[in-house]
Amino acid sequence: MNTAENPDVVIYGATLAGIMSALRLRMRGYRSLILEPTGHVGGIVAGGLVKSDCPNVVEALAGLTLTRFFEGIGREYGQDGPAYRFEPKVAEKVARALVTEAGATVRLNERIHGPSDVEVVADKIVAVKGIPARFVIDASYEGDLMAAAGVPYSYGREGRDAYGEPLAGFQPEIAYRRRSFRPNDLYPVKPRPRQKLGEADDKTQAYNFRGVLSTNPDRLPFPKPDGYDPKLFAYLGQLLAHRGVKGLSDIVTHTALLPNRKYQTNQALFFGFDLPGASWNYPDGSWSRRDDVIAEQVRWHQGMLYWLANDPSLPESFRADTRTFGLPPDEFVDSPHGTGFPHALYIREARRMVGAHVLTQHDLLKPTNTKTTPVCCWKYGMDSHIVQYYAEGDDTIVGEGTLSGTEHNPPVDLYQVPAEVLFPARGGVANIAVPLCFSASHVGYSSPRMEPNYGMLGEAAGELAAQSLGTGRAVQDYDYPQLAAALREHGSVLTLPGLE
């Protein structure tokens, strides 16, 4: 008998991808144990990312990710159909209900620290944190399980020569440039990197907290964080004045959520809630180092909100407008960073598996956008946030790392994601699937790195696991017609007009 101590599959990460994996496995008669490194289920959609980035072709979002999660949120609001803007507490409620539907046991605050937590014999993982497993799914944002198991991975940015991608590596020619900053070398600006055009590095695009703000009467005032230093926001003040921004309303009111007078924060401006440079040590860092990264991001985000509401360098009208917003007392009630402040940092990109197929820029564009083994379809522009600020000349600050040099993402064609991005190359670990840190280059990852797509890849990972358990074969030896039939049975869309 399979129990929580002896599951068929161990899933690392109660993210949307992990939950969808567990749900698919349950429908095939298998039991999952989910080890979640934080104190919450639902991943970043329960942790603050509640303005969903959906595909440009709406029909691409399908399967249980659509009908159970997004339509489930819609039902919570009494609407017929999916909801893509919602409250974090509702996302977590729906996520918990899906975990129950999946019959999965969840253990919270279970971090994987390294190879000692994952036992590998020959080409198979046999136990995770001492728990026997026949198959494992790494559905975490960090990819710690796959790394501990010895699965090859990368992080940062490949160079142009790695996969022949025009947008790969250091891209100073298409960077943002903003002038009239004197001096132009204050935090968080760094010296100009000594890199050549297209050269690789280990730098990661900016992370941030996807905050939720409230204008309700019971809103909480923005707290003054420990270590608050108003000088950190000098560049933001100059930018606000230059752009004529009148208050926080100008920045966030286009991101209204359902319902209850709440709003979503994101980067917003050239200087904003993103913190380029702070994320570089996160992907391959220890949990202690990651906690330091998180603490720096908390000080930045909370300090910025406090500064916008209180700093005397800003007009009183601006500060008064900002004070019409606050933190929602009914969200993130047990956050370690204070009630109303997100408990999860938005990890846009960490490790990426180097698997049986590496998704690159070429896979997002015709003529190589179709595949013989698709598990889902997707279309979303190549979205990389700024990787680094650096000084240029005596008054210019460069924001390098976006893939267009404008506020618009480079477009992609409608494309198919192949099953081979979900597991290692033949000869590697034979009983693992990785739906979130899937196999891709930095540029290739920049388009499909969205929560709805993670959910669909989680469904495919669950079906791959079920097939491997049923046949006893390595995941690399999967039967695609059988996989496609299983995916379609619960609504997955594997092709769309224009792709055949």
Kindly state the number of beta strands: 17
Q: Could you tell me the CATH topology label of the largest domain.
A: FAD/NAD(P)-binding domain
Using the coordinates above, name the CATH class of the largest domain.
Alpha Beta
Order of helices and strands: EHEHHEEEEEHEHEEHHEHHEEEEEEHHH
Total number of helical segments? Answer: 12
List the uncertain runs: none
The radius of gyration over CA amounts to 22 Å
Helix content: 25-40%
Spatial arrangement of strands, main beta sheet: 3-2-1-7-17
**Could you report the average pLDDT, rounded to the nearest whole number?**
96
Mind describing the biggest β-sheet?
Answer: 5 strands, parallel
Instruction: Please state the overall shape, judged from the principal axes of the Cα atoms.
Output: globular
Q: What's the number of structural domains? A: 3
Q: What is the structural class?
A: alpha/beta
User: End-to-end distance, in Å?
Assistant: 44 Å
What is the percentage of strand-forming residues? 5-15%
CATH superfamily of the largest domain: FAD/NAD(P)-binding domain
Second-tier CATH architecture of the largest domain: 3-Layer(bba) Sandwich
